[in-house]
Amino acid sequence: MKGEITATNGQLLGTVLAVQANFYRVQLDTLGVDNELHSPMLLCTRRTRLKKIGQQVMVGDRVVVEEPDWLGGRGAVADVLPRRSQLDRPAIANVNQILLVFAVADPPLEPFQLSRFLIKAESTGLDVVLCLNKSDLISPQAQQEISDRLGVWGYQPLFISVQQGLNVQPIGDYLQQKITVIAGPSGVGKSSLINLLIPDANLRVGEVSGKLARGRHTTRHVELFELPSGGLLADTPGFNQPDLDCDPEELVHYFPEARARLAEGSCRFTDCLHRDEPDCVVRGDWERYEHYLEFLEQAIARQTLLNQQADPESSLKLKTKGKGENKYEPKLETKKYRRVSRRSQVQSVRNWDEESEDE
Ligand SMILES: Nc1nc2c(ncn2[C@@H]2O[C@H](COP(=O)(O)OP(=O)(O)OP(=O)(O)O)[C@@H](O)[C@H]2O)c(=O)[nH]1
Ligand SMILES: [Zn+2]
């Protein structure tokens, strides 16, 4: 990226922006201030040595390029620098943050759906920037109410209107010199925002053709777009309903408001799932506690399923695992949670469908 030194020990360094068949589109680091506007792009192969040692090259990877053919625009990836982070879906290395885009209206802002995306984003361990588009559709007062509510959740949303160009500049600032993945449900204005930030990206907005091209039946194509102000941005096509694949014990840490409670005190049991255990500091009347319980049921159902698949003979595996855990298995059957369980089942089936189609 800009400002970095191109040659370390005489090596050419660059960032992989896209992978096409067996080729890697590598943007070389800029040579200096004067050359900043035209960082060279080379289509590279992967050195046999890397293939032999099984070294994959991912979008977002920082790589050493050898044998540049400047006229032909070709080169070879000779080495991959250690990754700072690695996302699986989308498969991108060295992502710094997730830009979560929702709309305040049209489609309406649904708290549960927002929670789901937030938790998915938090589970990556990356920074999360929440941006609420279409602010032109609601009053300043309604905006304030949303802001207050999400403030209690632990987030300071940035209200924008892509259509009216409101507050888009601060987003550009957030993205500078970083690799950002943009995510959010369908129709909130992600393509519109990307088009505004990167006029060259040319994503089709709200068109059937655009939807088809980015739809779930096409192969996932991951690509990093270069922002004029520096920084790289990736879209996440077909990321409408992220599946939560975290362990039940991890889940609580993806709620900032629960993290705050755990920072101030601790539960009696170290393996507390914060449901109905005695002396629990997490359980209480905070808005998203209901969401927590529902996601917890899903996470437990998923774990049970995984355990059964791993060991079909023993469906009691979870029960016999540990002292604290043998409590939550029968709880799945209680009336209180049954309604939630059934809904979770539907959702996990739906996610399953999406997953198999995506692959
Ligand atoms: N009122 C209003 N409408 C907007 C704004 N930004 C985008 N839209 C409209 O919202 C619709 C959806 O925008 P897209 O950019 O296609 O949304 P998307 O998030 O990319 O949707 P998918 O391609 O389905 O993921 C389009 O009709 C846009 O014109 C905004 O700030 N205000
Ligand atoms: Zn607890």
TrEMBL record:
Binds 1 zinc ion per subunit. GO terms for biological process: ribosomal small subunit biogenesis. Zn(2+) binds at residues 267, 272, 274, 280. Its main location: cytoplasm. The keyword Glycoprotein does not apply. Residues 93-240 form the EngC GTPase domain. GTP binds at residues 133-136, 184-192. Residues 309-359 are annotated as: Disordered. It is found in: Cytoplasm. One of its GO terms (molecular function) is rRNA binding. NCBIfam families: PRK12289.1 (NF008932), ribosome small subunit-dependent GTPase A (TIGR00157). HAMAP family: GTPase_RsgA. Belongs to the TRAFAC class YlqF/YawG GTPase family. RsgA subfamily. This is Small ribosomal subunit biogenesis GTPase RsgA. It comes from Richelia sinica FACHB-800. The lineage of its organism: Bacteria, Bacillati, Cyanobacteriota, Cyanophyceae, Nostocales. The gene is rsgA.
